[in-house]
Structure prediction request, 754 residues.
Amino acid sequence: MISFRVDSRSVAPPYLQIVQQVKQALRMGLLDVGDRLPAVREVVAATAVNPNTVLKAYRDLEREGLVEARAGLGTFVRNLPPGPPPGTHSRLGRSLARWVRQAREAGLDDESIESLLRVTLRTAAEKEEIA
Amino acid sequence: MTWLVWRQHRAQFYVGAALLAALAVLLLITGLQMASQYHSAIAACTATHSCTNQGGLFLGNRAVGFLVIMTLGTPVLAGLFWGAPLVAAELETGTAQFAWMQSITRRRWLAVKTGWMLLAAAVWGGVISALVTWWSGPNNALHLDAFNPGRFDIMGLVPVAYALFAMALGIAAGALLRRTLPAMAVTLAGFIAVRTVIALWLRPHFMGAVTTTYNLIGGYTPPGSSWQLASGVLNSNGHPVPQVNGVAAFGIPINYLPASCAPLNGGATTIAPSCRTALDSFRGFLTYQPAGRYWAFQAIETGIFVALAAILITVTAVVLLRSDA
Amino acid sequence: MTTIVKTRELTKRYRQVTALSDCTVTVPDGRICALIGPNGAGKTTLLRLLAGLARPTAGELAVLGGIPRQDPAFLAEIGFLAQEIPLYKRFTADDHIGIGARLNRRWDAASARDRLRSLNIPLDRAAGSLSGGQRAQLALALTLAKKPRLLLLDEPVAALDPLARRHFLATLAEAVADGALTVVLSSHLLADLERVADHLILLAASRVQLCGDIDALLAEHHVLVGPRKDTTAIEKTRTVVQAVRTARQTTLLVRGNAPVIDPDWESDEVGFEEMVLGYMGQDAPPPIAHLTTVGEDQ
Prediction:
């Protein structure tokens, strides 16, 4: 069972944070098809957000086809979000961690790493357009 | 709600009960002693036919006697420590509002609290009065002073009424002032003021007093425990002779009397004929309430204080129930 | 959706002072309604009127479909938690639960005890010796145990540390999630309210400035930033809530959804805190995020 974190300071409104965290959990393989999402009551007890916020998030996920609500039983995962299979994220995350270690050893600080990442993404996007 | 009142005032109840028990033990022991003292003294004087001279006999213990006089103050204790905080403390701390939001109407809350407290006050006053009245039996028979202020107030029915009044006053003061300490101050001051006014200025006039004139040489004492309000000597014109602290005989200043009366001031028992003639032109007067009216007076004063208590409780109800919480 | 609270031109005067004036609000069922306003704006007065602890001077008021009255059936449906969190100092939590059981018709002692145990609040210690946060939680547990339909809270978290506040609000939200409970909660802590509330009543100067669903209200408000110039055209099509004018720039908090045609104006979404501060008075500072370097006052 996953737990949610709702950050007041985040730019994203609470319900969106919940939606994103569910999707992230699905991508990371922490949630699988058939798993039950935490009950509204439990989420509310843990994060002190309004119950309607959680309901809104779950409804959004339902509209996207990722979950379905079963009356009296809870909300269950129906599909995985499109994208690479779960595990890909963890695998890539691990190799990214290795690269970050190398970058740090080379003397790059976080800002440089971020700007390097942005430039690389942009270059890759341009290359895809040309291709 | 009754359970809540009990839980809140449990400690006070135990303290009160303990005090009453201690008083009861003390008065029972000394009272029995005094009663037997009295009966032996009566038996002794009956044998010697000298029972009229027993007024000077002092029964019992001075300390206990003092304590009995101090029971004058016990009614106001009920008002101070149980009555004043009853509503005031709960308004001060906000627990009144807490109770009112527990599905209990303000009217019920006030009625149950006040009802039990008034009952407790009546019991408090009544038990002390019963003990003191019983204990005072021999003294009353000896000194015939039950109707006098100071004795009248601690026996019979009136202590119950005083306690009810004090309790009602405390509760009302608490409801109006909404703070315990000011309510206690007002209760104490108010109780003393009302009691003083009624005892000193109203009580003598509950019923028209009886005035008798009598021959000075014979003297006159109304039978039983009467309440003597005023006494003195009237001259032949019916005007009162000024009472002085100096040399006097039969209450008349010696300069009003012929020289033949002078030995009377020294304690002589024979009266010269010329003195006797002079004395005959004076008459003693006594204004008093007869002993037979004792219970009527008790009833009237009880009625007054119970009525005052009822008014105070009504005021409390109006203040608490009509206004905003 | 039923309306739990409905007032119309509700007014409360205390001798010379008008505490609340022409207050018209509604609170639908199942909401957590934030009651916001500067001190003295009438928040406590409104809550007391809703609870039946005070009577209105003028206007109408319907709570749970009826007028608040001294009647056990009505009192059973309302929970009120005053700012001072009154509890019997010498009584333990268990004693309080016992009192509640005897005075209330509906009483769920088990849930109260469970709640307190899960928060590690001792049941056998006198209430006077508990910490502020523990007392607030005890008072809340007692109020919830009577299973009211409407819960009125007057700055209940003001004196609590952040963790205690979080627990308190979580407990509250959880109770609403369980169903059949509406909450009206006054507080100054906008961050907390933004998180837990979905309805808003904003009072200022003893009057209602805003009342409604928070998401809907936020959608209706925008911040318009533009050069310093005449704003009459804008004012015709929407309500200007607050205007901040520097030497070269004008920032407007507006309400209304008419599209902005004038290209000089840049329209932005407004955050909860910004919107609330905009209504709370001209003394409130202007929205910091929109003071750009162009034309900034020296």
